[in-house]
Amino acid sequence: MGIAILDNDKSTVSILAEIIDEMGESPCPFTDKDKFLGAIDPKSHCVAVIADDFLDVIEGTKQVYPSIEILAMGSLDGSRCIQAGAAHHLGKPFSADSFRQVLQTLLIGMKARPVSENGSFIAADRSMQRIIEVLDKVAPTQAPVLIQGESGTGKEVIARYIHKHSRRSSGPYVGINLAAIPDTLLESELFGYEKGAFTGAYATRVGKFELADGGTILLDEVTEISVGLQAKLLRVLQEKQIDRVGAKSSLPVDFRVIATTNRDIEKDIQEGKFRSDLYFRLNVIPVKVPPLRARRDDILPLAAHFIAKVAKREGMQEKILSPQAKEALLGYEWPGNVRELENVIERSMILTDGPEIPPDIISFGMQGSQEPAGAYAAVGTTIHDMEKKLIFSTLESVDGNRTKAAVLLGISIRTLRNKLNEYSAKGQNSDT
Ligand SMILES: Nc1ncnc2c1ncn2[C@@H]1O[C@H](COP(=O)(O)OP(=O)(O)O)[C@@H](O)[C@H]1O
Ligand SMILES: [Mg+2]
Predict the structure, then answer these.
(1) 124 lines ligand 1 (CB under 6 A)
(2) Is this structure's pTM higher than 0.70?
(3) Distance of CA 22 from the midpoint of ligand 1 (Å)
């Protein structure tokens, strides 16, 4: 397996290539971003060493090819590289030894990793089996799929399943959560921008549609975008071409689109919040995922699956559910669906000492993955920072759904949008 290197500076690239060669691995050097993007491929590269000013390349590579580990190098902000998906950041100037060591650690870590982490899709209930029958027919085609279902029902799992069973499975799978990104940034996220398109656009940026060329793009929470952007999206779907922001001409792109929503999209259309022509484009194949409470035969198989998953991850013995614990799981309504079940099982596994999970360990209605807000309130934290953290953790807990987050926070959706815009504007200033 090769190790790709990308740096503007020729001599840095050749020094790195030499060290990699000495380590008995095969270096693939690049000084040009576009050539790198055209060549990078998980079939030939396991690690990419990328100069840290190529933040967009780091992010794009990791999004499209999650199996490729990225080592970012340079003198910029390491934490931003890690956020963008790099496994490590090594500052410049660096010593040959430290580079060797970091690379070695990455390579060893990769060999220890299980081959297929995302391969498991549990569908024991009759209703889910029927959905799989549909998916198996639809996956190999080019048809757009709209997946509807409550938060936590497994919409993203289904989108991946479709991609994996499609003729595009060796191509990229690119997901974007449209609820989590402020409107002001969304257009350039989706379509990219040309260098100089606006203040701060120092380099050309490739958008998600372009990254998905030859593969599948998942538009997660598609109902959350503004009506203006809906029109642009419709055009891209119709014409299969994109315009980077600030570009003079369009680029053809070959993608298959899958969209998800946890809202009542027909109602949004009636209320004029979602364009019906866009809906018809996306909804060629509708897939409605039932809530967990409507497919109770999935509950115990999913629980067993998550028990095995936690056991493996934590290196602990698998445990069994006591009969009363099973009853408790089967009797619950699961408003948070499969995601909530996963949290409940994870918590129960960790809190149970013996080999059997008793019923009293199982507690519902807690947001397992959320830290209590009080944990943030260290003296010295500003109210502004507290507020920002609270907003982001609330958004996370409702899967990026801004409407629900606004309700939980007790503010209007408009206020929420304004605050998110404000944070992203500040983030941009301090980066540049
Ligand atoms: N059928 C399933 N089999 C295994 N895991 C599942 C299944 N459905 C959901 N999950 C797990 O539950 C969590 C929530 O699923 P996700 O696809 O993110 O839901 P949604 O996108 O509908 O909110 C994820 O961790 C996912 O791996
Ligand atoms: Mg989701």
Answers:
(1) no
(2) no
(3) 43
